[in-house]
Specification:
The chain is built from eight helices and two strands; from the N terminus they run H-H-H-E-E-H-H-H-H-H. It is mainly alpha-helical. Helix 4 packs antiparallel against helix 5 and helix 6 packs parallel to helix 8. It starts with 5 loop residues before the first helix and ends with a helix.
């Protein structure tokens, strides 16, 4: 018996193409919450596949992440930085922690040499980035537990690079007397060995 699903799929595709982002988010969350855990697993597999094809290897332009504000010359975040953070969060949320850590490490690396006011938007954003790194580390651990790490050498290098960059950032911030924003990252990395 043949069932014609073409018309139904066309209607669903038309809806997806025309629905707003908030409606789609709500629908996806509802589907994932009210169906079997297998659906959530299939969803994250599809998300990893898509992100792996589109942007997990995209390089971050470190020169576009921050701008300097006159007359203080303190650094400030750009819209590009916010866009990069969205990408990093999508990666670790889909279970691609190591790919996300590469993106987040590039942000920390680009912050070396900058100064910011402790009450600025950038200082607040760095606190969020510190938390994002903690989430990406957790996602990386789950990636390991799930057997999805294809290149252990690259995974170790990602963590070693993050360790080096965070230490470099801490030394840099100490030179100008600022408050180091990545203490949570240091704590998360302290005992993690892969």
């Amino acid at each position: 018996m043949f069932i014609n699903t073409g018309h139904r799929n066309l209607m669903v595709d038309t809806f997806i193409a025309n629905a707003n982002v908030d409606d789609l988010r709500s629908i996806v969350r509802s589907l994932l919450a009210t169906n079997s855990p297998g659906l959530a697993s299939s969803f994250t597999n599809a998300a990893r596949s898509r992100l792996g094809q589109t942007d997990s290897k995209t390089c971050v332009n470190p020169y576009a992440l921050f701008t300097h504000q006159s007359p203080t010359m303190y650094a400030a975040p750009t819209q590009y930085l916010h866009d990069v953070l969205i990408r990093a969060r999508a990666l670790y949320g889909a279970g691609m922690g190591f790919a996300s850590l590469k993106v987040l490490t590039s942000i920390v690396r680009a912050s070396v040499g900058l100064q910011w006011d402790e009450d600025s938007d950038l200082a607040t954003l760095f606190a969020f980035i510190d938390a994002d790194i903690g989430q990406a580390i957790q996602s990386s651990k789950e990636e390991i537990e799930g057997g999805r790490v294809g290149d252990w050498g690259a995974a170790r290098e990602t963590i070693d690079d993050l360790r080096r960059v965070v230490k470099e950032s801490k030394k840099d911030v100490q030179t100008w007397g600022g408050e180091f924003p990545f203490e949570g990252t240091i704590s998360s990395l302290e005992y993690w060995k892969i």
